[in-house]
């Protein structure tokens, strides 16, 4: 997959100056982001970062605030705190402006336009790239997900769960994102289909795409990730390299089995 | 009891008026699909279409074609003003849908008052687009304006179809109607789509108003009956479906015409509201969504 950001060295551990664009600026840097649902403090001040070309996984049980975190970053849910993308403060930007910059999210439940065909969903994915070579972009998506080509004129609501997830990811890729955020992409899928989709995400990441992957239980996701944030009760309980999660008995028992 | 010729004559007129209801109904759907807002100021676009076209004809002395062509973008602009001055500020502040809908109703009343002050309160009309007629089919007379309504109605529906399926903005509007959050996540400016929907909806109303005025009169207060009947047409068709609203409008127009002939003019609104009640009772999702009967979910 071309058209995504080139693979730069992950910026984990580098010194960063907020608000200044430098080669070392992480792709996404979230500082003290916090969100409420009514009077419920669903996301307590939380900070995280994703390096360029890095795949980071956020794990957490149901209700830990994972979806709220992604919704807060994309401004679907009002939130306080600072968000910087490629070193630029984007805290005040609305959802669609973030998408224009290259921050694309695949929602839990896939968020497809159910009454539209696969083709129309994909074309809408390229909304922020008017005048782009649509056939070339479609060709790239079909290379990753050949099944979508077979279903091109089918109404998207009639696709199987796995195909719908492929379409949701394919549609996101049509926008040529720099950062792809996915909210529980393997939810409700057969294990074989889930691993197929996660393998594709791994391939996209190897080609340089920054990915923030949110999962509830994810032995597969952990194989792909370099770093893991564990979210619990609306805040980050741990940040550690994915390879170390096995050495934490409690975490390994919950998330790997 | 009316004879068959009289009934057929009325039904043909009913089809014409029904198409106008259908266009107003589509206007309701366009805004509702983009935002979830039911714009009760929809009827004033019909009134403004006729009134502004008449003003351009009589006060500026423009030819009918030019007056009609100019009136549509002017009304579309007024639709955009309503969105910008009334709906958008409330939408941005997170006002409840109920409050926004009430505000559109207040806007209708305000525009009616402004119309009285600027254009007057007297009913008025302008000539049919094609002079002469009517066309005689046996004992039935069909005015040329009906053909204009049919032709322009079909053209509008065709253009709308092309707009919604072939253009970037049209597709984006449909995306907003199905999943506003997903649309925003793909970079579609959902707020701007609301503005587009008001412009489009107002233009549709204006076309309806210009087409129907030669067959009757227009005045500051015709917005309410057209708005109510357009709203019923949209509900019959399953609120949100453009094709459904058009078919619902024709059905409503024909039923009203039949009721007038069979029971008297006083039954026009009775027919419309009875149709609404029957549809809501038996087909709560519109007559094209299938019979729901008295089954409980």
TrEMBL record, chain A:
This is ABC transporter ATP-binding protein. Belongs to the ABC transporter superfamily. The keyword Cytoplasm does not apply. Keywords: Amino-acid transport, ATP-binding, Nucleotide-binding, Transport. It comes from Alsobacter metallidurans. GO terms for molecular function: ATP binding; ATP hydrolysis activity; branched-chain amino acid transmembrane transporter activity. Signal peptide: none annotated. Residues 28-256 form the ABC transporter domain. The gene is livF. Gene3D superfamilies: P-loop containing nucleotide triphosphate hydrolases. GO terms for biological process: L-amino acid transport.
TrEMBL record, chain B:
The lineage of its organism: Bacteria, Pseudomonadati, Pseudomonadota, Alphaproteobacteria, Hyphomicrobiales. It is a multi-pass membrane protein. PANTHER family: ABC TRANSPORTER PERMEASE PROTEIN, BRANCHED-CHAIN AMINO ACID TRANSPORT SYSTEM PERMEASE PROTEIN LIVH. Keywords: Amino-acid transport, Cell membrane, Membrane, Transmembrane, Transmembrane helix, Transport. GO terms for biological process: amino acid transport. This is Branched-chain amino acid ABC transporter permease. The keyword tRNA-binding does not apply. GO terms for molecular function: transmembrane transporter activity. The chain crosses the membrane at residues 6-30, 37-57, 63-86, 98-120, 140-164, 185-212, 218-239, 246-265, 271-291. One of its GO terms (cellular component) is plasma membrane. It is found in: Cell membrane. It comes from the Bacteria. It comes from Alsobacter metallidurans. The keyword Cell division does not apply. Belongs to the binding-protein-dependent transport system permease family. LivHM subfamily.
